[in-house]
């Protein structure tokens, strides 16, 4: 697992989706969210399971880089729309 502050997403061309896989987010379905992102995302986007992103009361939490967009309470059914809006940009 990666710490979100470990320098990921430092360049504009890097598109990354960080998905919390810590205890609280896991209880709220983040494993299914991770699996769905892995299924729908294009090769130019890196999906990264992370440790706690510090937003435990709002899980599952997703951080989209380099845009620095924080999403909370993400459900598996939300992933295709998120991917279309943020991750499939050129």
From TrEMBL:
Q: Which domain of life is it from?
A: Bacteria
Which InterPro entries does the protein's record reference? Thioredoxin-like_sf
Descriptive protein name: (2Fe-2S) ferredoxin domain-containing protein
